[in-house]
Design goal:
Blueprint: H1 7-32, E1 36-37, H2 45-61, H3 65-75, E2 81-82, H4 84-95, H5 98-124
Helix pairs in contact: 1-2, 1-5, 2-3
Length: 125
């Protein structure tokens, strides 16, 4: 019998998921498009799904529907994470395309700089 994840663990996973999306997801989407290897997630996909459900249920029972809506909106990003083999084979095909590489490479370093600028702005206000 599976024991349901407790709220403290679920909330920690939710916070890590949010930070993961903020810092890495944009770059991963640029590189892999719609098939990102699941191994790049901070936790197993099923654990993230379960954690988000636990937190959503808790927030809904407390009447915090705005937070529920925000968390629910992040769940669709999990659909982009495919089995590792499938995602890597798809990426290998894309990486053979010189035009794809030419378009993606400059955008990766630009994304890093944008994240740093955003962080500096946040802490210099």
């Amino acid at each position: 019998m599976n024991k349901q994840m407790n709220l403290r663990v679920a909330d920690a996973i939710r916070k890590d998921w949010g930070k993961f999306l903020e810092v890495t997801h944009g770059s991963l989407m640029m590189v892999f498009l719609t098939k990102i290897p699941q191994a790049l997630l901070p936790y197993p996909k099923e654990a993230i799904e379960e954690a988000l459900d636990v937190v959503v249920n808790h927030l809904a029972s407390a009447g915090n529907y705005e937070a529920v809506k925000i968390i629910e909106s992040t769940k669709s990003f999990l659909e982009l994470y495919a089995e590792d083999k499938e995602a890597l084979e798809s990426a290998a095909e894309m990486f053979k395309d010189k035009n794809y590489l030419k378009s993606i490479l400059p955008r990766l370093s630009k994304r890093q700089k944008e994240l740093l600028t955003d962080l500096q702005t946040k802490f210099n206000e």
